[in-house]
Specification:
CATH topology of the largest domain: Pectate Lyase C-like
Distance between the termini: 45 Å
Order of helices and strands: EEEEEEEEEEEEEEEHH
Helix content: under 10%
CATH architecture of the largest domain: 3 Solenoid
Number of helices: 2
Number of strands: 15
CATH superfamily of the largest domain: E3 ubiquitin-protein ligase SopA
Amino acid sequence: MKKNKELIIDNLDCFAEEFTKVNLHGIKIKKAEFEECTFISCDFSETFFHSCRFIDCRFENCNLGLMKLTDSIVSGSNFISCKMIGIDWTMCDWKSLLSSAPIGFIECMLNDSNFFGLTLDRLVMKMCSAKDVDFRSGSFQRASFSNTDFKGAWFENTKLEYTNFTDATNTQINIQTNHLKGAIFSRDEALFLLETMGIVLVGLLALRLLMYPNHSRHSDYPLLCI
């Protein structure tokens, strides 16, 4: 059932509803709950969602730039072809989730967003633009970051074990200050990582020894190239 913007109000409780071309630009919505809802071509740019819940929702072709999610819960939701510039994801309420289902971004523009210190293991971020995004001190283990542009993105003390960076670009990640065991990179991008550190690769074993000089077992080394 489709809904219009007049029905998106404070304290709203929706299940399996569809919202199309709703414009809430700059509007504040408090304590609204959306479960298994779909949002298509909506404009939530600069919308302030306070203490709201988005559970297993789907956003398609929406403008969510500078959207605020203060004390709001986002779980198991997917964003497809959305503009999501400048969102501070650290303002969400992650602690109230007993078991956080992975969220997914497909073909989204996420530039200048903030994921600092968050634990979002198994996050999906495919074919996105993630320029100047802050991933520092976060945990994104077993995430899928394939085909995403990370130009200017910040990684420091970031847990990226077994994360898939296949065909990602501009991944300027210091292999000595981040956790990359089992991470998967395309061969050219793995070489790029070393070149940015002034390292010349002469063999895969040399690369493994540089990253884990204290490990001797082959199974302890990350898979870097495909």
